[in-house]
Amino acid sequence: MARYARVVTIALPRARLKEQLVQTLQACELTVMHVGEDYVVARETDLDDVSMSQLVTVEVLIDNATAQSDVTKFDLVLKNKELTLKKDNHCFAWFDRISRAIAENENWELLNNVATM
Q1: CB–CB of 59/41 below 8 Å?
Q2: Which of 57, 60, 69, 90 could form a disulfide with 40 if both were Cys (CB 3.0 to 4.6 A apart)?
Q3: Per residue in 15-48, pLDDT tens?
Q4: pLDDT (tens digit, 9 = 90+) per residue, 56-98?
Q5: Are 9 and 72 in contact (CB under 8 A)?
Q6: Of 7, 11, 36, 42, nearest to 107 (Cα)?
């Protein structure tokens, strides 16, 4: 199973974070499946070019414990059922795409962006 994660800290009030995350994920052509109190789940739904095992699920877990009035931290996790036999796989391509979309988003200031295991 492929799994890629990063911890992101941005300058944006927590109250606006979910709305901005949903817009960012939708701009990446993902379907938002669920928005909860402290998380957002989205999925790739286009089966034209990939198998079911390659479909990517994106989980954004918002860290409420460390949230400040204008700074928010969240974990970004992408995963699928694809075997990671090579680094340049479908899940990693999506991880790179979404990571760039977050880093380049003009609606917030990126304070910290660290890939994790």
Answers
A1: yes
A2: 60
A3: 889 999 999 999 999 999 999 999 999 999 877 8
A4: 999 999 998 876 778 999 999 999 998 887 778 999 999 999 9
A5: yes
A6: 11
